[in-house]
Amino acid sequence: MRSSLSILPLVLLVMSFFSPLVHATSIRCGSHLLQDRGAEHGPTMYEVLKKCGEPEERRGQIWIYKIRGKYWSLHFDGYGYLWRIHRED
Questions:
Q1: Does pTM surpass 0.90?
Q2: Is the dihedral of CA 50, 55, 60, 61 positive or negative?
């Protein structure tokens, strides 16, 4: 038991290096859940429009939505796939 507790800090440190690689954020538009995919393909711009409607604002490949009183920026890659969701503070 003691030896497994001594490696716990090391395991947590290693996991912290990989956490940006598995980061995913999601938002809910009505009954639809949108999730960014990072390196994988997320939903397309068309799919986001269909599920969430028109954004509050468009800044090129970044769309701003107001959902439940909070602003969210949805970032699309050059091919029109959602790759990042960020909460605007």
A1: no
A2: negative
